Amino acid sequence: MPLTLWLSLAAICAMGAMSPGPSLALVLRHTLGGGRFTGVTAAIFHAFGVGFYALLTVWGLGALIAGFPLLFQLITWFGAAYLAWLGIKALRAGRAGALEPSAVATNPSQAAKEGVLVALGNPKLILFFVALLSQFVTPEMSGAAKAIIVLTAMIIDGGWYVLVAVVLSHSQILPWLQQRAHWINRITGVLLIALALRVVAGPLV
């Protein structure tokens, strides 16, 4: 995979990971309720769940493109519509959302279990990945290239939420973020809508 294409993949995966939602709420809750290590544990196990869905998506996309191009196109457009809906939802969220703390006492084993379950219990991730990865997967793509895509999605997701856990474990950071939550939501919303338009425009490969 060319470096420029990988950088585009990394940027899109990062934007997907950074969008506010249940995953951010999960890491926030376990960080505030159990400390830095517990939050980091939730982040890492969430990345395992994301990697599983990314693997399923990459395996299925190549066959779908080759055998059912019209169905693939329809699913891609549906995925783009989902991204746009997420963007509109973020724009309308204002100050509310995943940055609201709801800390309860928790521990690393609970964080690990919930980290995986939040990822696997969200089948909308499949739509998200279809929309994202449709820009990069081709029927003739090698196994190594597919592995790079899956590992990139996992590492960026895990790395982002580990960073979130580390930053939020400093209690003075959270109030600062909450005061600016409306700007975080607006920026995320604009980026998600832009990504939806990019998906509709066609693949990068």
TrEMBL record:
It is found in: Cell membrane. The chain crosses the membrane at residues 35-56, 63-85, 116-136, 148-171, 183-201. Its main location: membrane. The keyword Cell membrane applies. Keywords: Cell membrane, Membrane, Transmembrane, Transmembrane helix. It comes from the Bacteria. GO terms for cellular component: plasma membrane. GO terms for molecular function: amino acid transmembrane transporter activity. It is a multi-pass membrane protein. This is Amino acid transporter LysE. It comes from Halomonas campaniensis.
